[in-house]
Amino acid sequence: MGSAAELSDEAGAQPTFTADLPGTYEADLVVNDGTADSGHDAVTIIATNPDPVAIAETEYHVLIGTTVMLDGSGSVPPTGGDTTQLVYNWSLQDLPTGSTAALAQTGTGLTSFYADMAGTYTAILTVGYQEKISAPLTVTIIASTANTKPVADAGGPYTIERGQTLTLDGNGSSDADGNPLTYRWYLFPPSYTAREVTAQKPAGSLLTVENALVDYDTATPSITPDVVGKWTAYLVVHDGVSISESSATIDVTLPDGAENTPPVATWFGEPHVSFYEGSYSNEVELGTTIWASGNSYDADGGCCGSSNRRYSWISTPEGYVQEDQTGKGSFWFTPDVPGAYTVEMIVNDGEDDSAPKQRTFTARTGANEAPRAALAVDSGTVLVGDTAWFDGRDSSDPNDDPLEYIWTLFDKPDGSSAKLTFQNVTSDDGAVLVNARAGIVTDQPGAYVVMLAVRDSHGVTNRPTTLIYGKVLAKSENNPPETNPTARLATNRINPLYPYLGMDETQPLVTGQQAYLASNAIDPDLDALYYLWTMDKKPEGSTATEAGDREYFMFLADLPGTYQVTLVVSDGVATSEPYTLTIPVVTPENYPTLRLIQGDQSYIVDGSSGSSQGAVPPDLATMDIDQGGSMTLPYSNTFPDSGALTRLWALTASKGDYTIVDLNVTTEHGGTEQARLVGLTEGQVIKEGETVNFALVYPADFNIRESGGDFRWQFKIKEREDFFFDFHYDKEQVPLP
C-alpha cells in the first residue's frame, strides 16, 4: 500500500518496474495469439530493505484553519525488523510567510499542526532503527482559503486642478480565482463593521458622500473637486464572497492664473452627508467658558488658522463686561449673565477679507446640548436571505431628551431591491425608543451600508460633519471558522519563546503570572470574527477573569490548581466547535521541570547608566555585558536610541539536570559588532535546584530605533526535545513597541 510502482510496458514481453517500497509485488501475465486470451500466470516479487523506510502520504490540500494530521505509522523497519522499535522524527522545514505553525509532537508516527496561513508547508519524516536511518520523506501540504481574497487597486496618486473632472481607475484590481468583481467607491474609510468617521475632503467642500463620486459603482468613477487640498478616495471590490479595500490620494491644486477667491467665514462646517439636515445648538451653559473658533475655509487652499481670524462683539446682555477680543485668533468667553451674546468673525487669506459672519449664543442654566449618534451591527456577516440588523439604541442625549432616529440605506449590492424596516426598542427604564433598530432582508451577496443620525426634541442633531455608519456583508455560502488556541505567558506574546507554547502537566504556569491565551482563529472565507472566552473552572477562591470577547484572553493565575477556559469563535453565520484549554498552575517551589523566567530589562548607553529602577542579579552583574555601568528597567516599552540593549533571563532547574545544546547566535546588521548570548555555553549543565542567569546582548553599534537588523538567539535542552529557546528580532517583521 502506498507504492507508486508501474510496469514500464504493459504490452511488452519484458517489462520492468521500480520497487519503491519494501513488500510483496505481484504481476499478472496474459498472452493473446490474435484470436483468444491465454490463462493467467502470476509472478511474485519480494522486495527487501536493508534500511528502514519512511512511509506517509506525501501531498495534502487543506483549507487554512485546518488541523492537519500527518501519519507516518505505516513506515517499515529493515526486512525482518520489529516495527515497534522504529524511532520517528518529524520536522517542519518550510512555512508560508508569517506562519507560526509548529508540530504537536515530533517523535511519534502520528503528528499534526495547525495551518494558520495560506501557502505551502513542507514536513520531513525520517525513521530510525537501531543505528540505521531512513532516507528523508518530504510531505507537501498546500493550504488555501475557500476563496482567494480579491485585490483592490484604487490607482493613483492622482493630481487634478480644482474644478476639473478626474476619472479614477480601479481596473488594476484583480481576483486570483477569476471571479467577476463589483466596485464601490467612497469618500470615507469603509474598513469597519461600524464606525464614526469623517469624509476625507478639505474643509469647505460642498460635495457630500452621496453625490461626490459619479458612477461610484463602476471601476472608473469621476469626481470634480471644488476645494484645493488633499482628498482620499476608497475603493472596495467584492468577488461574491470576500471584499478587499484600497485607497488613493487626490492632490487638488489651484488652476494656473486663477484669481484669488476670498475666504469664507463660517461657524459650522459644511455637512458631509445630505440624507438629513443638520442643526446645531446655540445654547451655552451659564458660567461655563465657551470656545468656538469656527470652521472657516478658503477654496484656494489658503487660511484659515488663528493668525487669519479676528472677532468682535456685536451685542451682549446688560451687565456683562465684554471680554476684549482684540488680536484673538480663537474666540472664547465666559457668559455670567443670562441672555444673548452675538459675535462677528472675519477671516483673511492674505489678500482679501471674508464677508463677516455672526453667531448668537444664548446663555442659560441647563443649556441644550447636541445628541450623539451611535450605531452597532448585530453581525457583520449574514447569509443572503437573512435580515441584517443595525442598532442605534446606544445613541445618547446629554439632556436626556427623547431622540428621533434618522436612517438611510447608503449602499447595497448590484441588483438588490432591499429596503429598510424598523423596530422599536424598550430601554431598561421602560422608555420606548421608536425606530431605534433598522433591518434589511438581504437579497444579493455583497455589502449593505447603513447610516444613522439622531435629532433631539429641540430639533438639534448630531454633527453633520461626521458619518455614523454600519456595514454588513451578505454571502451566498459560508465556511465556518476554526480555532486552535494556545496558552503562554503574557510577557511572551510578542516573540515565539520557549517553553510556553502549550501548557501541560510538565510546563505549568507559576502563581502570580499572567496567562495569555491566543485564539489562532482562522476563517476560510476571511470574514470578520467574534470571540467568546469563558472560564469553566478555576481553583476555589480565585479571582481570575471569568469571560472575554476579544481575539485574546488574559487572566492572572492567582492560586495554584487547574484553570479551564473554553473558546468559541463565530463569523456571524456559523460558530466553531468549542475548544477547551486546560492550564495547570503551581507555586514556584513545586515547578516540575526547567523554568524560564524573564528578568528586568537592562541596557547600557555610551558606557554610563541612568537612575537604577531595579537590581542586577549578582552573577549577571559580573558578566561581560559591555564596558561601563548598566541601567535596569522593569519590562517596558522604553528603549535606547543607541548603544547596547540587553534582555535578561533566568533558567531554574527542578526534578533533574538539564543540558544546553545547539546554542547559536546570528547577527545581520550594518555594524561591525556581533550579538552575544552571555551566561550560557554549549554543553553547560544546569543542576537540579540551580538558577542560571543569562543575557541576550545586541551589538553596541546597533541603533535599535533607526537601523535595520536581524538577530536570533537559540538553544535547545538535551533532555527535553520539546523545549527550545528561539528569540528573534527583525525590525521589519517584529518592530519594537
Automatic annotation (TrEMBL):
Whether Transmembrane counts among this entry's keywords is no
Q: Where is this region: Disordered?
A: 1-20
Name the keywords, alphabetized. Answer: Lipoprotein
Q: Give the highest taxon in the source lineage.
A: Bacteria
**Occurrences of domain PKD (ranges):** 147-185
The protein, known as: Lipoprotein
Upper classification of the organism: Bacteria, Pseudomonadati, Pseudomonadota, Gammaproteobacteria, Oceanospirillales
